[in-house]
Amino acid sequence: MMMANSVGRLCFAHKTVLAPMVRVGTLPMRLLALDYGADIVYCEELIDIKMAQCERVVNDVLETVDFVAPDERVMFRTCSKEKGRVVFQMGTADPERALAVAKLVENDVAAVDVNMGCPKEYSTKGGMGSALLSDPEKIEAILSTLVNGISKPVTCKIRILSTLEDTVNLVKRIEKTGVAAIAVHGRMKDERPRHPVHCDYIQAVAESVSIPVIANGGSSDMVKSFEDMEKFREATGASSVMLARAAMWNPSIFRQQGALSVEEVMEEYIRYAVRYDNNPFNTKYCLCQMLRDKVESPFGKRLHAAQTNEEICEVFGMTDFYNKTTAELEARKAALQTNGDQSEHPKLVDDVVTMPVRFERRDYPPQITPKMYLLEWSRKEKLDQPVYETEQRTQDRGFQSTVIMDNKKYRSTLWEKSKKFAEQAAAIVCLRTLGLPEGRIGEEHSGLVNKRKRDDKKCAALDDNESAGRKRHISEVPQEEEEEMICRTKVVNGVCGQTTC
Ligand SMILES: Cc1cc2nc3c(=O)[nH]c(=O)nc-3n(C[C@H](O)[C@H](O)[C@H](O)COP(=O)(O)O)c2cc1C
């Protein structure tokens, strides 16, 4: 029943689909499902308010695009392997916010879906999920705003209503918004997974609309194998089939040649988890779902005790794979850093020299910062001290600083999570543009920053090894205080304004 992926807009007819699943539908599971034969994969539901705060970051080391929250959590990670086949599902109750998020991810996903089926309180109390089912005007507003606002197909996933007639009336209204397809979970919002799926409702929906209907809800009672998917599709008269639990237990159910053993699948899952630096708790969660009743076994308990992807690999006897893969990633990171230094050509935008750089604290020794280097250089050259101007944007409260040095302006194009980091990033742009050292670990010592600081640094390093008590004492000296010794700081209007140092 499956058709090859057509180039261009994603088509939802005659497809097998990995359902959206919170915590399960992250990148490793989606890639695995695609490898085994799924045509389309939905990501886990992501809430619009959280996504709206994310920044899109190209991760050159992992070769992914990450949507990163202000607290640095990766909310959504995607890569070229799933390009054209990944559907972004969001939880929303607000057309404009939904559109803002859809626009943010639009170029990295194949379609955008709105969850209208989640009966959990955290969803419904915000008017999202299945709460939308009793507010058809809101549904229409959200879906038509999305359909008109983005170039990618828009879909939605619903549960059935308590009568056939109400369900059919609702989907007819939904179809009029211009959505490309509709996924129907054949259960009412109060029904639990143990209740039988209502194939007759899905069938009535399929007969009443002309867009593809994706049948969902068949795991466990109806769909236990690849062949069962086709039976479920026939029983519902739908165009496509979407699987959640059956795929979570063993994603190789999408394999036409027959499912593989869970042990083999778990190993493949771990390969993707390590390769794409998946959150270890998420990795563990998904593996535990695959273990099912074996989760209480001695093996399951060992898995449960693992805290990192490395420890998970140890439990599975995959330490060699872990070491090899992480070494490759580290090598790529190092190569990018070396090349990056050469290829980060400064660009003049208006009258500001810009570069896409970030201040990574771990790249610098304790108590050494690019700002200090710039200040010391300005003193040595008998120039005015650098002046920092910082602005904060409202959508994610991110900061961007411009440093004025010798009547020229320098700025990083990347927004930082704090004013301090934004100023450091601006200082890095200035130093790199001028070809000056910035104090990074491994960089040859220029002698720009005074000896006392270097000695302090040595002390701190010694302390790390020698005495935890003394270490605490030294690390209690906050960075600002340290900088204050060599720079004056003037803050105008709280966080945003001008500082000199
Ligand atoms: C672990 C888990 C997480 C889920 N998360 C979502 C979600 O994020 N969005 C959504 O629309 N449905 C979610 N669902 C519901 C499934 O997508 C699906 O509608 C339901 O499980 C019925 O399909 P099945 O019989 O194939 O399991 C989730 C289900 C499970 C088991």
TrEMBL record:
Per the database entry, which stretches of residues form a coiled coil?
A: none
Task: Please name the GO terms that the record assigns under molecular function.
Answer: flavin adenine dinucleotide binding; tRNA binding; tRNA dihydrouridine synthase activity
The segment(s) forming the DRBM domain are 369-436
One GO cellular component term: cytoplasm
What are the alphabetically sorted keywords of the record? Flavoprotein, FMN, Oxidoreductase, RNA-binding, tRNA processing
Species of provenance? Cirrhinus molitorella (mud carp)
**Which Pfam families does this UniProt record tie to the protein?**
dsrm (PF00035), Dus (PF01207)
Question: What cofactors does this protein use?
Answer: FMN
State the name under which the record lists this protein. DRBM domain-containing protein
What SMART domains would the database entry show?
A: DSRM
- The portions of this protein that span the membrane are none
Q: Where is this region: Disordered?
A: 447-477
